[in-house]
Design brief:
Radius of gyration: 16 Å
Structural class: alpha/beta
Strand content: 15-25%
CATH superfamily: Peptidyl-tRNA hydrolase
Low-confidence stretches: none
CATH topology: Rossmann fold
Distance between the termini: 49 Å
Strand order of the largest sheet: 2-3-4-1-5-7-6
CATH architecture: 3-Layer(aba) Sandwich
Helix content: 25-40%
Order of helices and strands: EHEEEHEEHEHHH
Number of strands: 7
CATH class: Alpha Beta
Number of helices: 6
Number of domains: 1
Mean pLDDT: 90
């Protein structure tokens, strides 16, 4: 059994914000696999597709680990069975990075999951949201960026990015982690030059 968790904040006001990339990927996978509407379980929205579980915690970002831990314990999982999908401000918009583990890198939702599971060995698929802030940037600037809605230009690229991320999830589900990382962690292609 594998658990794929998309991180985000519940509520219509957070739809299409940069911080909700994880939610968008899980919604896309559920729709593509015709899984229907979610059930309310494990403090979130939950789907099951054979040996794959999908979860969108409804605890708000900073408490995401509570929902993940409930599902993790219920299905008696190992940390290698869990994939977290989240946004990453340090990556260019749309670039993906799959890792087998590591620190939270300043992401509060991922930090909550790591704390709740008690290990850094949790796979994560990060989706770039493309904000490069200096060391001295105000915290408020970060909050405004991640909770800001996608721009018109970002929305144009959004469907392809979500498709690519769903392919990354499929790679994690079907390949060993090293092969999955090799497939997913390609540089984002540059857009063609304007005529």
């Amino acid at each position: 059994m594998k658990l794929v968790v998309g991180l985000g904040n519940p509520g219509q006001e957070y739809a299409f914000t940069r911080h909700n990339m994880g939610f968008a990927v899980v919604d896309h996978i559920a729709s593509a696999h015709s899984l229907g509407g979610p059930v309310s379980k494990f403090r979130g929205e939950f789907w099951r597709d054979r040996d794959c579980l999908l979860l969108k915690p409804e605890t708000f970002m900073n408490l995401s680990g509570l929902a993940v831990r409930e599902a993790f314990d219920f299905y008696k999982m190992e940390s290698a069975d869990v994939l977290i999908i989240c946004d990453d401000m340090a990556l260019p918009y749309g670039q993906l990075r799959l890792r087998a583990g590591g620190s939270a890198g300043g992401h509060n939702g991922l930090a909550s999951v790591i704390s709740s599971l008690g290990t850094l060995d949790v796979a994560r698929l990060r989706i770039g949201i493309g904000k490069s802030l200096s060391q001295n940037a105000q915290r408020q600037n970060t909050v405004n960026w991640v909770l800001g809605h996608l721009s018109k230009e970002e929305m144009e690229e959004f469907p392809a990015i979500i498709d690519h991320a769903a392919e990354g999830v499929e790679a994690w589900l079907t390949l060993d982690i090293d092969r999955a990382m090799s497939r997913v962690n390609l540089k984002k292609p540059s857009p063609p030059p304007s005529p």
